[in-house]
Model the fold of this input.
Amino acid sequence: MNQDLTVGRPETVLWRFCLPLFGSILFQQLYNIADSLVAGKFIGEEALAAVGNSYEVTLIFLAFAFGCNMGCSVVVSQLFGAREYGKMKTAVSTACIASAALCAALMAGGILGCGGLLQLINTPEEAFAGSKIYLDIYVWGLPFVFFYNIATGIFSALGDSRTPFLFLAASSTANIAVDVLFVTSFHMGVAGVAWATFLCQGASCVLAVGAVRTRLRKVETSQPTPLFSLLLLRKIAVIAVPSILQQSFISVGNIILQGVINGFGTGVMAGYSAGVKLNNLVITSFTTLANGVSNYTAQNIGARKLSRVKAGFRAGVKLVWLLSLPLFLLYFFAGQWALSLFLETPTKSALQTGVSYLRLLSPFYFVISAKLVADGVLRGSGRMLHFMASTFTDLILRVVLATLLARTALGSLGIWCAWPIGWTIASAMSVFFYRTGPWKNTPEGTE
Done:
């Protein structure tokens, strides 16, 4: 069901829209969590290290898919809010055509270059074969990743966060079962984990794309709409390219960090792999809720209702802070228990690494969540230069500081110290940019 985010009490409208998005991201994360959980529990610590090592490379591909999602979603949101339904349909087909071409190029690059990239980040010999198998299978599933992201972006733009949640809940639950089946019954090892993800992502993609086609057919237009528009492609690219650059640079930064971490051995690699899965669950949840803020902002800007943007920001921050509190308490005081989900018989090094990582980062969830909500407003309003400035500041600080501090007596602990510093400075920048937006002198409204 399509939902108009430009009417009603902003906090109620935004929360009602964002809560299914939060449920969706929980199930989305089950794909990666299930892979690591099954690898660590049923194959071994080296398999967990291989899946975790591969995950950092897959984030590069996800960066492009996420950028296409955001570019399509923001532009479609603005056109939906402005009631320009013909252009909205053209924007959807334009995004699909452009994304297909980009996906094909990435597949070619992945097939030819993943092995070299694994060598570049100093992947240990005992984890190399597993990492290569996982990535080879993952690359062939990239069309599913891209078109699923496009479909969910369109649903969000139309104010429907419930439909993709239902698709994702079913496919993610199935992924866990297929993971266990392929690994324990068919003894397929890391390849079984990768094929399970491939099959279940494919199913969710087909269902989501089919539902989008049905939904768009019901939107009436006065005349036939063209399949492609260079003007709309440029508008999509204005949002998509900075989002891709942001996510790509973050992924490259994470790969550099993974290379530093790999130098400390498989114990630290496994502990970090488990810890970063738990941390990414939190950050991705915040990011997804911020995407909801982007859709809310874009619809209201399309409808020229700037007075609702400030109220939406306040509601978004309140929502992510309510989420931050229990996650901080869980990771800070019960991190060892959470890590045990991934590590059956962890080495002392792996367990200490995971616990120190979570305890150092979790108090700063309140900081980074506020940044991501501010980023959501900036992205939804098209202020991409401001959005990129704060994001790149965070990334550069984390990579540089982690590389330097890892060489001190702090060792691997020095790497984790870079996160809070980068988050804090970048958060201050994002909130400042939000406060200087065109809505700054507009009173909050509820029209």
Q: What stands out?
A: The first helix runs from residue 10 to 43. The mean pLDDT is 88.
